[in-house]
Amino acid sequence: MVEEKKKTTIARKKPKFLRTDWHKKIRLGRGVKKNQKWHGAKGRQNKFRLGRKGRGQRPKVGWGAENDTKGFVGGVETVRVENLRELEAVKKNQGVIVGRVGARKRISILEKAKEMGLRILNRYKEKNDAVS
Predict the structure, then answer these.
(1) Which residues of 78-95 are buried (b: 16+ CB within 10 A; e: fewer)?
(2) Is the Cβ–Cβ distance between 37 and 102 less than 8 Å?
(3) How many other C-beta atoms are found inside a 10 Å radius of the C-beta of residue 118?
(4) How far apart are CA 7 and CA 70, in angstroms?
(5) Which residues contact 80 (CB under 8 A, 6 or more apart)?
(6) Per-domain residue ranges for the chain?
């Protein structure tokens, strides 16, 4: 039996693209991580926009993943699922990402995926999660 090679992205140092001056103001995310996310610099003389030294990297074309590893999470190809019909179309070697659905439908998708032996990639610990 031939063993399949696990597809992963190249191990390289990719910076976290954070908002300009996020460390200076609370509303820009000093204590709130979700507010630190990237916002492009708009100002005319903004040093970040001008690409001055010591300012951190900006997201550019070259930072993306290679074409053959795009859509892979942890070496597994991902499929977004929102109902049981879509779940039945998933192949054995693919990972499942459960879309935005309600609690009842999420539980039924998780149970069916467990029966099928599929791997759920965005399964986080939840207080009322019935399936373990």
Answers:
(1) bbebeeeeebeebeeeeb
(2) no
(3) 21
(4) 10
(5) 97, 99
(6) 26-64, 68-120
5-32 pLDDT, tens per residue?
A: 666 655 667 788 888 888 888 888 888 8
82: nearest Cα among 64, 60, 102: 102
In this prediction the pTM is: 0.61
Amino acid (1-letter code) at residue 18: L
Q: Are strands 76-81 and 72-73 parallel, antiparallel or unpaired?
A: antiparallel
Residue 126, both tokens: 């939840």
Q: How does pLDDT run across 35-70, given as a tens digit for each residue?
A: 888 999 999 999 999 999 998 889 988 888 788 888
The candidate with the shortest Cα–Cα distance to 36, out of 47, 25, 50, is 25
